C-alpha cells in the first residue's frame, strides 16, 4: 500500500475513533443513563421488566459481538448419555423426568471453558461450563450451569462488563484465555460482589483434572412446583462418582503445551474405552416459608447454600455413554437456554437468572442464523412440537395448510393451548408488588462473608494454592494501583491471605480486618471428596531385561480399574528376564509425566544414558506435582538416586501383592500434599 493510500486509510479510521474519558454514559441513541449497575425491576427483589430498554440494548449488543463463535464458552466438548432417577421427587415437583423412576431420559452435555476462544487450551485457569439438555417427554429441559456454584455478579446487566474485563484487552488482544491482567483485576477491585467467585476461580476448582472429575451446579435458585401447586426453592448439583480432583498450576501450564486438548481427549477416550463418566444429581430444597431464615439472600447468585445447613438430596444418576458423531453438528450447534423448562420447574427473581432468560435466545439468533435453531437435530425435542411459528432462516419443517394464527376456525382452532391438567405449562403465581426501580436489595450487599467461609473451609495445601494463584495473577498486572486495590479488598476476606499475597508481590501488608466469619463448610474442600483409583492413568517406565513379575503387577493394577501405559526409548516389544513380553505404548518423545496420574518405574538392563536421564526428569516432575510414584526391582535405584525413595506417596518393594496394594492406595489419594506442607 502506498503512503498516500495509507494516509487515506488512517484518515478514514480517525473519524470513527472516540475518547470516552470524562464523558457521561448514554445509550446508543444518545440518551444519558443515570444508572448502569441494576436492571429495572418490580421492587428491589422483584422480576426484571421487559421495558428495560437500556438492559436490552446493552445485552443485545453484547450477545452479538462475536460471530459465529460463542462469545463465552467457545471452547467445549460434548457427549450423549442418559439420566436415571433413584427416587421420585413427586413430593416437590411434577416434572415427569423427576417423578417417574421407570424412565431413562436421554441427555446431551456440553463442558466448556468460559473466557477463552475456541482455539485456546483446555487447562486455562477458568470456570467451566456444565450444561445439560434433558430430552424429556414433556419437552427439552436445559440445566445450564458451571463447575462453581456461585458467580461474579448479581445482576445480568453487569455481564457484558465482566466479560469485557476478563477477555483479552482490546488494544492488543492479549492475553488469551487468562484473567492475569489489569482489566480483570480492576473490575474485581471495583465490583466487590465478585469476591466470593474469585476465591473459587483462584482455587484448585479452576484447574480440574478432567471433566469426569468436576462438580456441576445450576448456580441459580429455581423453583420446584408439585401437583398441588406448592413451591420449594431448589438448587441443583452434579456430583462426579469419581470425586472432584484438580491438577496443580505448574502442571496445568505444561499440559496446555503438551496437549492443549487434554480435557477434550480425556472425555472422548474415556467413553470410547467404556469408562463412562457418571454424575449423581442432587438437589437442595428450601420451603417458601423458610426463604428469609438464612444470613444470606437465597436469590443472590454470589451465595451458595452450605451443605451442612441445607443438605444435598441425591436423587439420580447421569451416565455419558456415547460420543458425538460430528463435533460441529452436535457439540458446536447445540443451543442451551435456562428458559427451556418443563412443568414442575420455574424461575425465581434472581436478577442474574432473569437477564439470562433474555440473553440466551438473543445469542442463538445470531450464532445459529435465525429463529429455527430448535430444528437442528441436536436441539430437536424427542416429543412432537406444534405451533403457529413459520418461516425464518434455516426453516426445516414443511407446514401444511393456510392457517398460522390463533384463534382460528378454519382449522378448528388447532393447535390449541393445553390446560395444566393436560400437561400445559403454568407459571407459578407468585405475588408481586413494589415500585419500578433500578436498585438492588440490601440483602445482596454482603460480599465477603461467604468468601471467608470458602477460605476457612480449605485445607492447608489448598490455602497455599490460593495464595500462589493470587500472587501469580496480580504479579502479571502492570498497574500497582490495581494490585493495591485488590490486596486491600481481599483483606476483607482474610488478612492472612491478603498479607501473604502482598508480601509475594512487593506490597505492604493491607490495613483493616477480615469479615470475622469463623464458620467453615467441609463440603467445599476437595480433600473431602471421593477417592478412587478407577480410570487413573499410570505411566510404566521399562526397558529390556525387566523383572518377570511386572506383567502380573500390571494385571493386578488393571483389575483395580487403573489404566497402565508402557513407555520406553522406542516402540516395539520389551523382553523380560523370564522371557515375558511387554508391548510399548509410548516413547519418551511422545509421553510426558504431566499426562499421567502416577508413574511406575520398572527399569531394565543395559539402559542408555538418555533413558536414565529422561526417567529422572519424569520422576522429579511427578514428585514436584505430588503424584503417586511406584517402583520395583531396578526402578527402586532411580528413586534412591533422586533422593525421593522415603517420601510420602512413593511406594517401592519387590513383593508383588504388597506393592500393588500400597500403590493402589497411593493412587487413590490423588496427590500427596504432605510433601508440600
Automatic annotation (TrEMBL):
All residue ranges annotated as the Catalase core domain in the record: 26-414
Comp. bias (Polar residues): 1-15
Example GO biological process: response to oxidative stress
Region of interest (Disordered), ranges: 1-27
Broad EC category: oxidoreductase
UniProt-annotated catalytic positions: 73, 146
GO MF terms held by the record: catalase activity; heme binding; metal ion binding
Catalyses which reaction(s): 2 H2O2 = O2 + 2 H2O
Cross-link (3'-histidyl-3-tyrosine (His-Tyr)): 337-360
Keywords linked to the UniProt accession: Heme, Hydrogen peroxide, Iron, Metal-binding, Oxidoreductase, Peroxidase
Source organism, top-level taxon: Bacteria
Residues engaged in binding heme: 70, 110, 159, 356, 360, 367
Alphabetized SUPFAM superfamilies for the sequence: Class I glutamine amidotransferase-like, Heme-dependent catalase-like
Gene3D superfamilies: 1.20.1370.20, 3.40.50.880, Catalase core domain
GO cellular component labels: cytosol
Xref: PANTHER family: CATALASE, CATALASE-B
Family according to the record: Belongs to the catalase family. HPII subfamily.
Protein name from the UniProt record: Catalase
Organism: Jeotgalibacillus malaysiensis
Amino acid at each position: 500500500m502506498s503512503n498516500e493510500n495509507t494516509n487515506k486509510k488512517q484518515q478514514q479510521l480517525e473519524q470513527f475513533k472516540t475518547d470516552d474519558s470524562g464523558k457521561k454514559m448514554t445509550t446508543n441513541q444518545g440518551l444519558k443513563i443515570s444508572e448502569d449497575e441494576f436492571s429495572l425491576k418490580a421492587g428491589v427483589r422483584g422480576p426484571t421488566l421487559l421495558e428495560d430498554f437500556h438492559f436490552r440494548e446493552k445485552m443485545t449488543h453484547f450477545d452479538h459481538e462475536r460471530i459465529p463463535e460463542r462469545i463465552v464458552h467457545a471452547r467445549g466438548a460434548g457427549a450423549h448419555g442418559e439420566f436415571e432417577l433413584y427416587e421420585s421427587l413427586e413430593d416437590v415437583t411434577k416434572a415427569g423426568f423427576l417423578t417417574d423412576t421407570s424412565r431413562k431420559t436421554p441427555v446431551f452435555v456440553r463442558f466448556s471453558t468460559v473466557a477463552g476462544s475456541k482455539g485456546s487450551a483446555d487447562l486455562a485457569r477458568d470456570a467451566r461450563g456444565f450444561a445439560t439438555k434433558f430430552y424429556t417427554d414433556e419437552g427439552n429441559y436445559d440445566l445450564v450451569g458451571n463447575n462453581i456454584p456461585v458467580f461474579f455478579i448479581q445482576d445480568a446487566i453487569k455481564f457484558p462488563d465482566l466479560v469485557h474485563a476478563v477477555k483479552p484487552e482490546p488494544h492488543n488482544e492479549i492475553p488469551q484465555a487468562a484473567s492475569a491482567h489489569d482489566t480483570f483485576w480492576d473490575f474485581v477491585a471495583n465490583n466487590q460482589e465478585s469476591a466470593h467467585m474469585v476465591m473459587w476461580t483462584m482455587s484448585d476448582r479452576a484447574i480440574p483434572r478432567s471433566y469426569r472429575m468436576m462438580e456441576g451446579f445450576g448456580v441459580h435458585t429455581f423453583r420446584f412446583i408439585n401437583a398441588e401447586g406448592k413451591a420449594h426453592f431448589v438448587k441443583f448439583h452434579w456430583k462426579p462418582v469419581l470425586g472432584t480432583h484438580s491438577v496443580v498450576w505448574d502442571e496445568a501450564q505444561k499440559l496446555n503445551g503438551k496437549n492443549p486438548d487434554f480435557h477434550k481427549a480425556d472425555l472422548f477416550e474415556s467413553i470410547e474405552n467404556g469408562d463412562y463418566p457418571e454424575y449423581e444429581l442432587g438437589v437442595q430444597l428450601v420451603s417458601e416459608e423458610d426463604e428469609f431464615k438464612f444470613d444470606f439472600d437465597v436469590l443472590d447468585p454470589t451465595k451458595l447454600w452450605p451443605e451442612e445447613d441445607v443438605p444435598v438430596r441425591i436423587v439420580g444418576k447421569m451416565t455419558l455413554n456415547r460420543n458425538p458423531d460430528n463435533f460441529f453438528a452436535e457439540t458446536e450447534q447445540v443451543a442451551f437456554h435456562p428458559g427451556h423448562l418443563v412443568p414442575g420447574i420455574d424461575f425465581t427473581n434472581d436478577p442474574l437468572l432473569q437477564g439470562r432468560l433474555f440473553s440466551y435466545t438473543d445469542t442463538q439468533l445470531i450464532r445459529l442464523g435465525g429463529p429455527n435453531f430448535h430444528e437442528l437435530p441436536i436441539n430437536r425435542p424427542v416429543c412432537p412440537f406444534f405451533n403457529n411459528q413459520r418461516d425464518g432462516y434455516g426453516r426445516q419443517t414443511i407446514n401444511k395448510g393456510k392457517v398460522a394464527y390463533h384463534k382460528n376456525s378454519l382449522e378448528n382452532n388447532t393447535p390449541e393451548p393445553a390446560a395444566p391438567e393436560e400437561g400445559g405449562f403454568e407459571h407459578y403465581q407468585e405475588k408481586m408488588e413494589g415500585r419500578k426501580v433500578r436498585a438492588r436489595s440490601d440483602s445482596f450487599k454482603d460480599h465477603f462473608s461467604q468468601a471467608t467461609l470458602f477460605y476457612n473451609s480449605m485445607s492447608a495445601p489448598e490455602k497455599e494454592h490460593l495464595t500462589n494463584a493470587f500472587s501469580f495473577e496480580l504479579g502479571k498486572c502492570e498497574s500497582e494501583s490495581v494490585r493495591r486495590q485488590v490486596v486491600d479488598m481481599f483483606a476483607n476476606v482474610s488478612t492472612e491471605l491478603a498479607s501473604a499475597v502482598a508480601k509475594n508481590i512487593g506490597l505492604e501488608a493491607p490495613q483493616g480486618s477480615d469479615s470475622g466469619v469463623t464458620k467453615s463448610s467441609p463440603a467445599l474442600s476437595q480433600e473431602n471428596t471421593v477417592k478412587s483409583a478407577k480410570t487413573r492413568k499410570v505411566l510404566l517406565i521399562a526397558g529390556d531385561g525387566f523383572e518377570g513379575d511386572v506383567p502380573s503387577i500390571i494385571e493386578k493394577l488393571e483389575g483395580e480399574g487403573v489404566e497402565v501405559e508402557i513407555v520406553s526409548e522406542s516402540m516395539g516389544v520389551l523382553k523380560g528376564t523370564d522371557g515375558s513380553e511387554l508391548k510399548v505404548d509410548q516413547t519418551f518423545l511422545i509421553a510426558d509425566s504431566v499426562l499421567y496420574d502416577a508413574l511406575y518405574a520398572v527399569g531394565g538392563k543395559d539402559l542408555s544414558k538418555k533413558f536414565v536421564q529422561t526417567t529422572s526428569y519424569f520422576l522429579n516432575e511427578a514428585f514436584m506435582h505430588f503424584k503417586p510414584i511406584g517402583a520395583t526391582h531396578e526402578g527402586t535405584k532411580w528413586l534412591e538416586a533422586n533422593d525421593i525413595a522415603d517420601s510420602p506417596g512413593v511406594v517401592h518393594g519387590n513383593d508383588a501383592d504388597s506393592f500393588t496394594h500400597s500403590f493402589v492406595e497411593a493412587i487413590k489419594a490423588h496427590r500427596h500434599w504432605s510433601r508440600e506442607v
